[in-house]
Each structure stands twice: as structure tokens, then as C-alpha cells.
Amino acid sequence: MHQMLAHAILGPMIGGTEQELVEEWHGLLARHAAVHNALEHDLQAQHGISVSEFEALELLASSDHGKCRGQDLTNVVHLSQSAASRLVARLERGGLVERVMCDLDRRGIFVVLTDEGHKRYSDAKPTHRSALARTLRADD
Amino acid sequence: MHQMLAHAILGPMIGGTEQELVEEWHGLLARHAAVHNALEHDLQAQHGISVSEFEALELLASSDHGKCRGQDLTNVVHLSQSAASRLVARLERGGLVERVMCDLDRRGIFVVLTDEGHKRYSDAKPTHRSALARTLRADD
DNA sequence: ACGCATCGAATGCAAGCGCATTTAATCTTG
DNA sequence: CAAGATTAAATGCGCTTGCATTCGATGCGT
What is the crossing angle of helices A115-136 and B18-47, to 10°? Predict the structure, then answer.
């Protein structure tokens, strides 16, 4: 309560009032939810893929030969290792990706973008960018 | 590809290069994941509540008489209506909250913070703020 | 006052998530 | 070189989520 007064009287202090931290966090939450929901809806409706799946495809498309190690995917998608594993399994089931054995380290795998996967990514990209442009700057 | 060159040669243009939108989105994703994971871990480990549950308790604690309409909760937690309903059910099961009939509009409910609920919120609050302070400014 | 659209909330259901564990391959150390 | 530690990935499990639907209550137009 008196924190709101301090803010009103002294103006926004750029340091790190508890009040300010909470406001920044709520802003981050709202912003994230808005963009994520829009992306999820548009990508799902128009191309049948989720946000995480798109991020995975994007990493692959920007990689050499459309291939990358399974672990690199895990780092990118902000998901647990198990969830990332199942994400690859889904993409494979959908024919967007293939899993190939890694010769040098036979524990690991390579995830490789198929032609169909590359096409789906290219198709989805404008939808993705458009949703970003619409929602990322909408509420400033 | 030429987008990266444009960025390197012309410098960051503050308008809305596609490249810039994507970078801003990835930053938002990373930031959200970092803070959310830390909050979720700390709140769960030390107080047995999730981030959404904490947000709900915080709304209630800041409301008059610790009561608010079910729909107000839905708006705050960035969850679907059904998920919010189950969230209240969980909180009720845990004894942190009670559902009471709303007399004026008997479709709706009031969600009321119990004494135990208020205590759990007060206990969790420092943990929450501490995690925010640690993660929200950590990676600038 | 009646019937119909709308609203607030709850619930069946399938899918996705994280945690913990498992399996197999690789690295380390004595 | 053998045994234990470590790593990459997959999987069983319980929980949470969103979508679609349902149910009762309310508001509105005629």
C-alpha cells in the first residue's frame, strides 16, 4: 500500500523496489502469455504445429544440412529433456523430421529435417512472424 | 541470411526488423522461462504451491476481506477457465481457500482466503520476492 | 410472462509436461 | 584393462492443461 504511494510521489525509481520487481514480473507474464497464446493459436490452426515444434523446426532449418544433435534441441525449446525427446518423436511421427544414429557417439542421435519438414517450416514462418509483429508491440 | 548482414551493416534499427522481432521474442521466452522455473522450483520446494497458485493467493490477499469472484481469478492467472476452476478446487482441497455461493448472482461463486491460506501466502511471499530479485535482473 | 440467447462454473477427455528411472554407450581411474 | 561414474536419450507415471460440453442461473426481446 505505502509502496504505491512511494511510487506515486517519488516517481518510478529504477533500482528495484519490491513493488517494481513484481510489476516487471507481471508485465513479463502478461506479455509472454499474449504472444504465446497468439502464436499457439495461429500456428496450430493454420499449420498444425505448436510453438515449441516451430522453434525446433526453426533451429533445424538454420542448421547445417538441417541436422542437429538431440541435445541442442533441448537447449532451445525451454522444455525438459523428456519433453524434448517426445517432441522429436511427435515431429518424426508427423514426417517432419527423422532420427538418425550418431556414428561418433552412439548414445546420441541426429535429428534431421525432412523435405516435408522444411516445407512446413517455410509455410509456417510468415504466420509466426505476423503473429509476433501483431502482438509483440501491440501493448506498449 | 541478408537480414543478419543488414543488422551488422546498418546497426540495430529500432523499428521492427523481422530479425529484431524474433530476437525480442526469444529474449522474452528465455527471460520468462528463467524466472518461471526459479519461482516454480522455490515455491514448490519450500511451500508446496505452484506459481499460479501463488498468484491466486496474492490476488485474494490484496482483495477486500480476502474474497473475490471466480472470474477475477481466471483473469489474473493466465490460465483457461477450466484450469482456473481446477486451481480453485486444488486450493480448496488444500484448505487454503473456500468456495461460497454468491447470493446476488447464483451462477457465480466467491473464493475466500482461509486463515491457513493467508498464512501460507505470507510465508511464501519472501521466497517469491527473493526469486524475482535473483532472476529478473540476473541476465541483463 | 415465456422462450431463447448468454453467462459463470464444473467436468469428461485427450494431450503435453516434469520427475524419476532405465538402458546403453562413453569416459575415467586405479 | 576392468569397474564405477557419467552422459544421451527414452519411457512409466501422475498431474495440469485446454477444448468442448454440460448444467443451472440470469437477462432480454416480444
Answer: 80
